[in-house]
Design brief:
Cro/C1-type_HTH, alpha+beta, five-stranded antiparallel beta sheet, 14% strand, DNA binding, MLTR_LBD, 434 Repressor (Amino-terminal Domain), two-stranded antiparallel ribbon, Lambda_DNA-bd_dom_sf
Protein backbone atom coordinates (compact mmCIF):
# COMPACT_ATOMS: atom_id res chain seq x y z
CA UNK A 1 0.00 0.00 0.00
CA UNK A 2 1.46 3.40 -0.98
CA UNK A 3 1.89 6.14 1.61
CA UNK A 4 -0.87 8.16 -0.08
CA UNK A 5 -3.28 5.23 0.11
CA UNK A 6 -2.30 4.70 3.73
CA UNK A 7 -3.11 8.34 4.50
CA UNK A 8 -6.48 8.08 2.80
CA UNK A 9 -7.32 4.97 4.83
CA UNK A 10 -6.32 6.69 8.07
CA UNK A 11 -8.50 9.69 7.23
CA UNK A 12 -11.42 7.36 6.55
CA UNK A 13 -10.87 5.44 9.78
CA UNK A 14 -10.70 8.68 11.76
CA UNK A 15 -13.91 10.03 10.23
CA UNK A 16 -15.71 6.76 10.87
CA UNK A 17 -14.58 6.70 14.53
CA UNK A 18 -15.73 10.27 15.15
CA UNK A 19 -19.07 9.58 13.41
CA UNK A 20 -19.67 6.62 15.75
CA UNK A 21 -19.31 8.91 18.77
CA UNK A 22 -22.20 11.20 17.83
CA UNK A 23 -25.91 10.68 18.29
CA UNK A 24 -28.72 12.23 16.21
CA UNK A 25 -29.84 14.25 19.23
CA UNK A 26 -26.42 15.87 19.65
CA UNK A 27 -26.52 17.29 16.12
CA UNK A 28 -30.23 18.17 16.32
CA UNK A 29 -31.66 15.32 14.25
CA UNK A 30 -34.75 13.34 15.18
CA UNK A 31 -33.73 9.89 16.43
CA UNK A 32 -36.66 8.16 14.73
CA UNK A 33 -38.66 5.15 15.92
CA UNK A 34 -36.28 2.47 14.55
CA UNK A 35 -33.46 1.19 16.76
CA UNK A 36 -30.08 1.73 15.10
CA UNK A 37 -28.03 -1.36 14.36
CA UNK A 38 -24.76 0.51 14.93
CA UNK A 39 -23.95 3.45 17.22
CA UNK A 40 -23.51 6.98 15.98
CA UNK A 41 -24.67 8.87 12.93
CA UNK A 42 -25.31 7.25 9.59
CA UNK A 43 -23.13 8.17 6.64
CA UNK A 44 -26.03 9.83 4.85
CA UNK A 45 -26.71 12.00 7.90
CA UNK A 46 -23.12 13.23 8.03
CA UNK A 47 -23.19 13.88 4.28
CA UNK A 48 -26.41 15.86 4.51
CA UNK A 49 -25.15 17.99 7.39
CA UNK A 50 -21.89 18.65 5.53
CA UNK A 51 -23.74 19.50 2.28
CA UNK A 52 -21.94 16.79 0.26
CA UNK A 53 -23.29 13.68 -1.47
CA UNK A 54 -23.59 10.42 0.43
CA UNK A 55 -21.55 8.64 -2.25
CA UNK A 56 -18.73 11.20 -1.91
CA UNK A 57 -18.66 10.80 1.86
CA UNK A 58 -18.78 7.01 1.59
CA UNK A 59 -15.69 7.04 -0.65
CA UNK A 60 -13.93 9.31 1.85
CA UNK A 61 -14.52 6.81 4.67
CA UNK A 62 -13.43 3.95 2.41
CA UNK A 63 -10.14 5.73 1.71
CA UNK A 64 -10.81 5.87 -2.03
CA UNK A 65 -10.60 9.66 -2.53
CA UNK A 66 -8.96 12.68 -0.91
CA UNK A 67 -11.02 15.54 0.50
CA UNK A 68 -10.33 19.19 -0.18
CA UNK A 69 -9.53 21.60 2.64
CA UNK A 70 -13.02 23.20 2.65
CA UNK A 71 -14.68 19.77 2.82
CA UNK A 72 -12.42 18.74 5.72
CA UNK A 73 -13.30 21.99 7.48
CA UNK A 74 -17.02 21.35 7.02
CA UNK A 75 -16.68 17.76 8.27
CA UNK A 76 -14.73 18.99 11.30
CA UNK A 77 -17.71 21.15 12.21
CA UNK A 78 -20.32 18.47 11.58
CA UNK A 79 -18.38 15.87 13.61
CA UNK A 80 -17.85 18.33 16.46
CA UNK A 81 -14.05 18.06 16.33
CA UNK A 82 -12.09 20.13 18.82
CA UNK A 83 -9.02 22.10 17.69
CA UNK A 84 -6.62 19.19 18.31
CA UNK A 85 -8.80 16.70 16.43
CA UNK A 86 -9.25 19.15 13.56
CA UNK A 87 -5.47 19.69 13.31
CA UNK A 88 -4.94 15.93 13.35
CA UNK A 89 -7.48 15.40 10.57
CA UNK A 90 -5.80 17.98 8.34
CA UNK A 91 -2.37 16.49 9.11
CA UNK A 92 -3.59 13.02 8.16
CA UNK A 93 -4.98 14.41 4.92
CA UNK A 94 -1.75 16.29 4.16
CA UNK A 95 -3.59 19.61 3.98
CA UNK A 96 -2.65 22.94 5.61
CA UNK A 97 -4.99 23.36 8.55
CA UNK A 98 -4.98 27.14 8.53
CA UNK A 99 -6.70 28.98 11.35
CA UNK A 100 -9.49 26.99 13.03
CA UNK A 101 -12.91 28.50 12.71
CA UNK A 102 -14.15 30.30 15.78
CA UNK A 103 -16.39 27.77 17.47
CA UNK A 104 -18.48 27.87 20.58
CA UNK A 105 -20.10 24.94 22.34
CA UNK A 106 -22.79 23.59 19.99
CA UNK A 107 -23.53 20.27 21.69
CA UNK A 108 -25.81 20.57 24.67
CA UNK A 109 -25.31 18.47 27.77
CA UNK A 110 -27.49 15.42 28.48
CA UNK A 111 -28.78 17.20 31.59
CA UNK A 112 -29.94 20.18 29.53
CA UNK A 113 -31.54 17.87 26.98
CA UNK A 114 -33.41 16.18 29.81
CA UNK A 115 -34.52 19.56 31.17
CA UNK A 116 -36.04 20.48 27.82
CA UNK A 117 -37.88 17.18 27.58
CA UNK A 118 -39.24 17.47 31.11
CA UNK A 119 -41.02 20.79 30.49
CA UNK A 120 -44.20 19.45 28.86
CA UNK A 121 -46.20 22.69 29.21
CA UNK A 122 -43.40 25.09 28.28
CA UNK A 123 -41.92 25.66 24.84
CA UNK A 124 -38.14 25.75 25.18
CA UNK A 125 -35.19 26.01 22.82
CA UNK A 126 -31.45 26.47 23.23
CA UNK A 127 -29.74 29.25 21.28
CA UNK A 128 -25.99 29.33 20.82
CA UNK A 129 -23.61 31.99 19.60
CA UNK A 130 -25.07 34.00 16.74
CA UNK A 131 -28.52 32.71 17.78
CA UNK A 132 -27.97 29.30 16.19
CA UNK A 133 -30.72 26.89 17.23
CA UNK A 134 -28.94 24.04 19.04
CA UNK A 135 -31.85 22.14 20.59
CA UNK A 136 -35.56 22.39 21.29
CA UNK A 137 -38.35 20.43 22.90
CA UNK A 138 -41.46 19.00 21.27
CA UNK A 139 -43.68 21.93 22.25
CA UNK A 140 -41.28 24.53 20.80
CA UNK A 141 -41.39 22.69 17.46
CA UNK A 142 -45.19 22.53 17.57
CA UNK A 143 -45.44 26.22 18.49
CA UNK A 144 -42.86 27.78 16.14
CA UNK A 145 -41.78 25.36 13.42
CA UNK A 146 -40.39 21.86 12.98
CA UNK A 147 -36.72 22.78 13.30
CA UNK A 148 -35.67 19.27 12.30
CA UNK A 149 -36.76 20.04 8.73
CA UNK A 150 -34.19 22.86 8.51
CA UNK A 151 -30.65 21.81 7.50
CA UNK A 152 -28.37 22.20 10.50
CA UNK A 153 -26.12 24.80 8.85
CA UNK A 154 -29.23 26.98 8.27
CA UNK A 155 -30.76 26.36 11.69
CA UNK A 156 -30.50 29.90 13.03
CA UNK A 157 -33.28 31.83 14.75
CA UNK A 158 -32.59 35.15 13.01
CA UNK A 159 -32.43 33.44 9.60
CA UNK A 160 -35.74 31.66 10.27
CA UNK A 161 -37.45 34.90 11.34
CA UNK A 162 -36.36 36.73 8.18
CA UNK A 163 -36.53 33.99 5.54
CA UNK A 164 -39.51 31.82 6.51
CA UNK A 165 -42.70 33.56 5.27
CA UNK A 166 -44.77 31.69 7.88
CA UNK A 167 -43.04 33.69 10.63
CA UNK A 168 -44.70 36.89 9.47
CA UNK A 169 -48.06 35.29 10.16
CA UNK A 170 -47.02 33.43 13.30
CA UNK A 171 -45.80 36.67 14.90
CA UNK A 172 -48.47 39.40 14.64
CA UNK A 173 -45.78 41.84 15.84
CA UNK A 174 -43.26 40.48 13.35
CA UNK A 175 -41.38 43.76 12.93
CA UNK A 176 -40.81 44.07 16.68
CA UNK A 177 -39.73 40.41 16.94
CA UNK A 178 -37.38 40.72 13.97
CA UNK A 179 -35.87 44.00 15.19
CA UNK A 180 -35.27 42.48 18.63
CA UNK A 181 -33.54 39.51 16.99
CA UNK A 182 -31.22 41.87 15.09
CA UNK A 183 -30.27 43.77 18.24
CA UNK A 184 -29.48 40.49 20.01
CA UNK A 185 -27.38 39.45 17.04
CA UNK A 186 -25.43 42.70 17.34
CA UNK A 187 -24.49 41.76 20.91
CA UNK A 188 -23.23 38.36 19.77
CA UNK A 189 -21.24 39.99 16.96
CA UNK A 190 -19.53 42.23 19.49
CA UNK A 191 -18.61 39.22 21.63
CA UNK A 192 -17.31 37.19 18.67
CA UNK A 193 -16.04 39.65 16.03
CA UNK A 194 -13.96 36.98 14.26
CA UNK A 195 -16.70 34.37 13.90
CA UNK A 196 -16.97 33.69 10.13
CA UNK A 197 -20.37 31.99 10.51
CA UNK A 198 -21.83 35.14 12.03
CA UNK A 199 -20.17 37.36 9.42
CA UNK A 200 -21.63 35.22 6.63
CA UNK A 201 -25.10 35.29 8.25
CA UNK A 202 -25.08 39.10 8.39
CA UNK A 203 -23.89 39.31 4.78
CA UNK A 204 -26.58 36.88 3.60
CA UNK A 205 -29.47 38.55 5.40
CA UNK A 206 -28.30 42.06 4.46
CA UNK A 207 -28.44 40.98 0.82
CA UNK A 208 -31.80 39.23 1.08
CA UNK A 209 -33.81 41.58 3.29
CA UNK A 210 -33.95 45.39 3.30
CA UNK A 211 -35.40 45.52 6.82
CA UNK A 212 -32.53 43.47 8.19
CA UNK A 213 -30.02 45.69 6.39
CA UNK A 214 -31.58 48.89 7.77
CA UNK A 215 -31.90 47.58 11.31
CA UNK A 216 -28.38 46.15 11.31
CA UNK A 217 -26.88 49.47 10.25
CA UNK A 218 -28.97 51.17 12.93
CA UNK A 219 -26.46 49.78 15.47
CA UNK A 220 -29.08 49.22 18.18
CA UNK A 221 -28.12 46.57 20.73
CA UNK A 222 -29.82 44.69 23.52
CA UNK A 223 -29.32 41.43 25.36
CA UNK A 224 -31.59 38.46 25.76
CA UNK A 225 -33.77 38.80 28.85
CA UNK A 226 -37.48 38.41 29.31
CA UNK A 227 -40.72 39.77 27.94
CA UNK A 228 -44.04 38.91 26.33
CA UNK A 229 -44.59 37.64 22.81
CA UNK A 230 -47.77 37.23 20.80
CA UNK A 231 -48.42 34.33 18.43
CA UNK A 232 -51.08 33.63 15.82
CA UNK A 233 -50.82 29.86 15.51
CA UNK A 234 -52.44 28.05 12.54
CA UNK A 235 -53.81 25.30 14.80
CA UNK A 236 -54.70 26.84 18.19
CA UNK A 237 -55.13 30.49 17.26
CA UNK A 238 -53.89 33.46 19.26
CA UNK A 239 -51.56 33.10 22.24
CA UNK A 240 -49.75 35.56 24.46
CA UNK A 241 -46.74 33.96 26.13
CA UNK A 242 -44.14 35.12 28.62
CA UNK A 243 -40.55 34.36 27.71
CA UNK A 244 -37.49 34.15 29.92
CA UNK A 245 -33.82 33.52 29.20
CA UNK A 246 -31.76 31.08 31.25
CA UNK A 247 -27.96 31.11 30.90
CA UNK A 248 -26.01 27.86 31.12
CA UNK A 249 -23.24 28.22 33.68
CA UNK A 250 -21.10 25.53 32.06
CA UNK A 251 -21.69 26.86 28.51
CA UNK A 252 -22.10 30.66 28.70
CA UNK A 253 -22.71 30.95 24.95
CA UNK A 254 -25.83 28.79 25.30
CA UNK A 255 -29.12 30.41 26.31
CA UNK A 256 -32.34 28.55 27.08
CA UNK A 257 -35.41 30.47 25.91
CA UNK A 258 -38.54 29.33 27.77
CA UNK A 259 -42.07 30.34 26.75
CA UNK A 260 -44.88 29.85 29.24
CA UNK A 261 -48.44 31.01 29.89
CA UNK A 262 -50.29 31.89 33.08
CA UNK A 263 -52.27 28.82 34.23
CA UNK A 264 -55.99 29.10 33.61
CA UNK A 265 -55.64 31.49 30.66
CA UNK A 266 -56.69 30.71 27.07
CA UNK A 267 -53.02 30.80 26.10
CA UNK A 268 -52.23 28.13 28.68
CA UNK A 269 -55.08 25.99 27.39
CA UNK A 270 -53.75 26.42 23.84
CA UNK A 271 -50.25 25.31 24.89
CA UNK A 272 -51.70 22.21 26.53
CA UNK A 273 -53.58 21.39 23.33
CA UNK A 274 -50.34 21.69 21.35
CA UNK A 275 -48.48 19.60 23.92
CA UNK A 276 -50.98 16.75 23.66
CA UNK A 277 -51.55 16.96 19.92
CA UNK A 278 -49.89 14.21 17.89
CA UNK A 279 -51.79 14.45 14.62
CA UNK A 280 -50.34 13.17 11.39
CA UNK A 281 -50.88 16.46 9.58
CA UNK A 282 -50.18 20.07 10.42
CA UNK A 283 -51.25 23.29 8.69
CA UNK A 284 -48.48 24.55 6.46
CA UNK A 285 -47.44 28.19 6.32
CA UNK A 286 -50.07 28.94 3.67
CA UNK A 287 -52.86 27.25 5.66
CA UNK A 288 -52.87 24.03 3.64
CA UNK A 289 -52.26 20.66 5.22
CA UNK A 290 -48.78 19.21 4.96
CA UNK A 291 -47.48 15.82 6.02
CA UNK A 292 -46.06 16.01 9.53
CA UNK A 293 -42.55 14.75 10.18
CA UNK A 294 -41.80 13.27 13.63
CA UNK A 295 -40.74 15.94 16.06
CA UNK A 296 -37.48 15.44 17.97
Amino acid sequence: MSSDNGRLKEVGDFLRARRAELSPQIVGLAAGPVTRRVPGLRREEVARLAAISTDYYRRLEQGRIAASGPVLDQLAQVLRLDDDQRAYLFELAGKPAGKPRVTQARAISPQLRRLLDQMPEAAALVLGSGMDILAWNRLAAALITDFARIPEHERNYVRVVFTDPAMRTLYPDWADVARKAVTNLHMDAARHPDDPRLTELVRELSTRDADFRDWWHGQHVTSKGQGTKRFHHPVVGDLTLDWDTLICDTAPDQHVIVLTAEPGTPSHDALRILASWNGEEVPDGDGTLAARQPLP
